[in-house]
Amino acid sequence: MFAALDNSRSALVEFRNNNRRYPCPADITLTRGDPLYGQEDCTLTPTATGRDTDGVGGPDNVLIGSVPFATISPDNFYNELSESLTIDGWGRKITYAVTQRSTVALTFNESQGAISIEDENQRTVIDPPGSAHIALVSHGDNGRGGFTTAGKLVEGCALTITPGPPPVPPPVLTALSETENCDGDATFFSGLRNTTEGSYNDDRIQFLVVTPPTIWSYSAVDQIFNTNPGNVGIGVEDPRERLHIDGNLKAETIRAIRFCNEDRGDCVPPSYIGGSEPAMKCPQPDQAIIAIGEDPVTLLPRVYCGTPLSTPNTGTCVRGYMTGLTSQGTILCTPPAP
């Protein structure tokens, strides 16, 4: 009856392992014969979760649709996924929700799922809360919130209570019902079957939470990034910044909001180091930067300029080899190793 959940989950995991991302859902409202039927659609309207797992500001999003069997099938060598394997025992499509950032290889992060899974008492069933990568729903006997293969909604999501005298004794209603699985938000309900009016649930759900085995994860084929939610230290045991380095760092590109000394007292924006600030340029075209320091009046970084020698220095190193020139044209020499 619920084999479609197992089939879909296994195929999605294999797709993730092969592509370092999950597929986007297919449009659940499409019918057979449409050229996009069963194909992933990354343009679906996202649902904001209100969470910010990557720490860069703004909510994480979730995409909701059906299992994109046509996209998954050609990529899964060991797990060929046909449409029939994604249809539940009542002939309805399995609803598939996925964390949007997990559908892109460059932003996929095993520790940044954004889907909440809660029980009937509105308690999280996963740790940490709101961290599921994906959720799969079979909408059960009544099909409330589910779609047929013709793209038709079986029954609206609203849960109505039949008018009449209250039952004796009155039922104890739960905080969540099966309507949580079709209300379009990023929270899904995983609970016991319940036929009590107002707490009805005949849905079956599966979800996936992955605990990363390491604090490093791939962002591209040849690039990795640190998934540690705290500070990262290089050459230091007690990092006090998101990236705290004791020593020298060599890199082609460094992205930071500001650069500071170790006591955080002197910080400059990247534009000063990059030379795009007027204060970091020499006023005369024939001048060159000879030092960087602090302006005694503004207390901001500034450059000190000098005029290079008009004639090249023709001196030689008595011992060792030449390593550079001073601002006055004097040769800098380094003696050979003993």
Structure notes:
This protein is mostly beta strands and 338 residues long. It folds into 2 domains: 1-214, no CATH class; 308-338, no CATH class. The protein is 8% helix and 21% strand. The chain has 3 helices and 17 strands. It has helices spanning 3-19, 69-72, 270-274, and strands at residues 47-48, 61-66, 95-99, 116-118, 134-138, 187-189, 204-208, 216-220, 223-226, 232-234, 243-245, 259-260, 267-268, 288-294, 301-306, 321-325, 331-334. Strands 1-2-3-5-7 form a 5-stranded antiparallel beta sheet, with helices on one face. The longest helix is centred in the N-terminal third of the chain and has 17 residues, at 3-19. The radius of gyration is 30 Å and the shape is elongated. It starts with a helix and ends with a strand.
Helicity level? under 10%
Strand order of the largest sheet: 1-2-3-5-7
Overall pLDDT metric: 82
Distance between the termini: 80 Å
Structural class by sheet pairing and helices:
mainly beta
Count of the domains: 2
Rough shape?
Answer: elongated
What is the count of β-strands?
Answer: 17
- Strand count, sense and closure of the main sheet? 5 strands, antiparallel
Strand content bin: 15-25%
Poorly predicted runs of 5 or more residues: none
Count of helical segments?
3
Radius of gyration, Cα only, in angstroms?
30 Å
> H/E series, N to C?
HEEHEEEEEEEEEEEHEEEE
Topology diagram in text:
Blueprint: H1 3-19, E1 47-48, E2 61-66, H2 69-72, E3 95-99, E4 116-118, E5 134-138, E6 187-189, E7 204-208, E8 216-220, E9 223-226, E10 232-234, E11 243-245, E12 259-260, E13 267-268, H3 270-274, E14 288-294, E15 301-306, E16 321-325, E17 331-334
Parallel strand pairs: 4-6, 10-11
Antiparallel strand pairs: 1-2, 2-3, 3-5, 5-7, 8-9, 12-13, 14-15, 16-17
